[in-house]
Known about the structure:
The strands form two sheets. The protein has a five-stranded antiparallel β-sheet, sandwiched between helices. A four-stranded mixed β-sheet has the order 2-1-3-4, covered by helices on one side. Helices cover about 45% and strands about 10% of the residues. Helix 1 packs antiparallel against helix 6 (about 160-175). About 25% of the residues are buried. The chain is of the alpha+beta class and about 425 residues long. It is elongated, with a radius of gyration of 28 Å.
Amino acid sequence: xxxxxxxxxxxxxxxxxxxxxxxxxxxxxxxxxFEMGVSNKSPEFLKMNPIGKVPxxxxxxxxxxxxxxxxxYVASLKPDSxxxxxxxxxxxxxEQWIDCASLEIDANLxxxxxxxxxxxxxxxxxxxxxxxxxxxxxxxxxxxLASNTxxxxxxxxxxxIVMTCNLYLGFTRLMTKNFTAEFPHVERYFWTMVxxxxxxKIVGEVKQTESVPPVPAAKKSPQPKEAAKSNPKVExxxxxxxxxxxxxxxxxxxxxxxxxxxAKNPLDLLPPSKMVLDEWKRLYSNxxxxxxxxxxxxxWDMYDPEGYSLWFCDxxxxxxxxxxxxxxxxxxxxxxxxxxxxxxxxxxxxxxxSETPYKxxxxxxxxxxxxxxxxxxxCYDMELYEWxxxxxxxxxxxxxxxxxxxxxxxxxxxxxxxxxxxx
Length: 423
C-alpha cells in the first residue's frame, strides 16, 4: 500500500508532507476528490482521525494525523535524511524552528485570519495582540536570517519546509508588501524557498496578497415572524431595536467603534522634567558646525539627571558581525523596532571597526531612572545588548557620552563604519 495523504490540493498543511516527499524521494499519493467539510466527516476519515482535522496520512501500519508529525514521519523514511540536520545540535535546532513556525507564526496568523474569513467573531484587541505577537516573531526570524540563508545549516531542512508553508498562508492571504517590508530578510528567505524546485513543484506560482480580507459585516438577528404578524402596522421603534438580542460580533463592533480613553503610559505620570526632549532633538538636528561647542554643550545644559537617565549598550554577539551590510541592517532593524519609544528616548548607535568582526555600541537617553519596562517587553533586541547605566559624576563616562553623540572618530581608537541616530 502506498502512502496516501488525505487533504485538499491547496492545503498548506498538506504541502508540508508533499514537499518533504519531494526532498526524500518517498512516494506519497494525494487522495482523489477530497472535499473539505464532506470527506473529513465521513466514517472512514473519522476512524483515522476522530477529531476530523486535515491532513491525515494513511500508511500500511496505520494512520497519522497532525501535519508536522506527518512531515517528520515521511522525512524519517529516508535513512540518514539531511532534513533533520547533520548533527544532534542541528536536529535540535530543526525542532526549535518547527515549533517556532507553528506556535509563533502560524498560530498568530490564524487568529488574524479566521475572523476575517467569517469563522470566528472579530475582536479588534485580540487581532491587534495577534499581529503584535506575529511581528515580534517575524522580527526574531528576520534577525536570524540576516546572516543565514536557511534556518539550520547550509541546506534546506524540515524546519524550512514547515516555516515556508506557514509563511505561505501569511504572504498569500494577509501580509501585504507594506507589512513584510519591515522584515526584508524574511522576504528574501520566503521567495528563495518557494522558488526551490522541490517546493515550486508543489505550491506552484506564488503571488503576495495586495490587501487584507475585510471583516465580514455582522448579520443581524431576524425579527421573529410571529411578532411581526401580531402588529403588522406598527412601525418598529428605535428603542425596541436597541433591546433586540445581538450577536457577539455586533456587540463587539459597537464597543470597538466607540471612542476609548487612551491608557496612560507610566512615563507620562512622572514629575515634570526641566529637560524638553523635543528641544534637544531640534538642537541636535539643526547644529551643522561647531557641534561640540553648540550641541554637546547644549545637551549638558539641558540634561536633567532626575528626570532622565543615560545608558551605554554593547552588543553581546559581536563575533557574529562579519559582514558589514548585515551588521548595519541589524542596527537599522533595532532602531525601527524602537519606534514605540520615540516620545521618551534619544539614541546613538555606532558600528565600529575597519576590519571584522565589527563592534556595535550604543548610547541611549531614556525618560525616568530605569530603562522603561514597556520597551524591554516589546522590543526583543534589548536582550541582545548588555546595558550599563552612565555615571555622569565620572568624567570619563561623561566624555564618552559626548563622543558618542558627536560621532567622534576615531572612537576608542577605531574607525567608525557607520553611525545612526534615533530621534
